[in-house]
Amino acid sequence: MSGHGPSVAIACQGGGSHSAFTAGALQRLLPAVDTEYDLVGLSGTSGGALCAVRAWYGLLSDGPDHAGELLEDVWCDVAATTPPSFLLNESLVWHKRLQNRMLPAADISPYATPGAVGHDWYLSLLDRHIAFEEFDSLTDEAPPHVTIGTVNVNSGVFETFTDDAITPKAVLASAAFPLLYEAVELNGHWHWDGLFSQNPPIREFLTSDRPKPDEIWVIQIEPQTRDDRPTSLAEITDRRQELSGNLSLNQELFFVRKVNDWVEKGYLPDDFKHVEIRRLQLDKTLTAASKRDRDPRFIEDLMETGRAEADAFLDRLPE
User: Fold this and answer.
1) Alpha-carbon gap, residue 99 to 152, rounded angstroms
2) Pair type for strands 276-281 and 215-220
3) CA distance 146 to 162
4) What is the dihedral of CA 204, 131, 60, 195, to 10 degrees?
5) Residue 35 in contact with residue 299, Cβ under 8 Å?
6) CATH number for the domain harbouring residue 203
7) Tens-digit pLDDT profile for residues 259-269
């Protein structure tokens, strides 16, 4: 990276298909960081993990401009463009919409329909876009470093994977939403979606022995605030899921603010410093059901929104 300005770490919150917004935002942020800042870390969970790992791999293998093109490629591949995938996508989205309205729509365990929307599809997607066998050599070039989050179903402990410890199964585990994917076995334990853990991992930017950032840029998918009062069952369900999705994010940011407070009071060693937190947020009213939506038009609209919000975010940065 350039080292022309403050060091930055980018944290990508997960949110299913809404993470296409993150891909669009990274397309603008990565070239800007390369010329004006020093990128020391990326992190992500669920769809944010897919974006973070793809961006990291693209940066170290091809550079920031091409990394943006590769993010475009992977999300075009995620989109449901064939008739079978389109029909499956529509059925999943409408199933969730009916559930949110408390209408009869029974869930089916992913273990009853193995492979339908599960591991094989996601692992094939990763294989087409990320050469994990190159990670050993790429880590010699780091920083930046990349970290993704999962939760250990058996122990209830959050687990993260960094750089060459990241495997296709680890990225799959970070995205393994329990009602759609079977749990993923890693190191003799079963893992689920990182949305239940650190969403996304942030404290690792400060607690590892790697270079600590001057700033953390959070790409936030879930709305932090709402002006209206949820009254319908669908609105209540959506807002509950938004609050749940932000719970771990706010806990991670609380840790950073607490460290900043200790730094100000002189409680910590000199290698700790004040870290500025900046948020880039998805400012659209979306439903929880649309997190399953892989309609190509929806994906492209989210990516374009991400690009526009990132441009505005960069314009607001201090000179």
Assistant:
1) 27
2) parallel
3) 6
4) -30
5) no
6) 3.40.1090
7) 999 999 999 88
> In terms of Cα–Cα distance, which of 46, 175, 182 is closest to 108?
182
Both tokens of 238, joined, read: 């959506």
Q: List b or e across 111-131, with b for residues whose CB sees 16 or more CB atoms inside 10 angstroms.
A: eeeeeebbbeebeebbeebbe
Residue 178 exposed, middle or buried by CB count within 10 Å (0-12, 13-18, 19+): middle
pLDDT tens across 271-283, in order?
A: 889 999 999 999 8
* DSSP 3-state of 13: coil
Count of structural domains, the chain: 1
Contact 108, 118 (CB under 8 A): no
Q: Identify the helix (H) or strand (E) that includes residue 9.
A: strand 7-12
Structure tokens at 12: 């990508």
| Structural domain includes residue 64 | yes
Asked whether residue 122 is domain-assigned, the answer is: yes
Q: Which two tokens stand for residue 162?
A: 């960094």
**75, part of any domain:** yes
Range of the domain at 127: 7-314
Band of residue 35 on the pLDDT scale cut at 50, 70, 90: confident
Both tokens of 107, joined, read 């869930």
Reported as a single tens digit per residue, the pLDDT across 124-175 is 999 999 999 999 888 876 689 999 999 999 988 889 999 999 999 999 999 9
Which segments of 131-225 are extended strands (E)?
145-152, 158-162, 184-186, 189-192, 215-220
User: Closest Cα to residue 317, out of 26, 3, 5?
Assistant: 5
Where residue 102 falls (left for φ over 0; alpha for ψ -120 to 50; beta otherwise) is left
Q: How far is CA 62 from CA 5, 69, 155, 200, in A?
A: 22, 10, 39, 25
Do 203 and 75 meet the contact criterion of CB atoms below 8 Å apart? no
Q: Counting Cβ atoms within 10 Å, is residue 147 exposed (0-12), middle (13-18) or buried (19+)?
A: buried
Instruction: Supply the DSSP symbol for 241.
Output: H
How far is residue 252 from each of residues 25, 43, 131, measured CA to CA in Å?
21, 12, 30
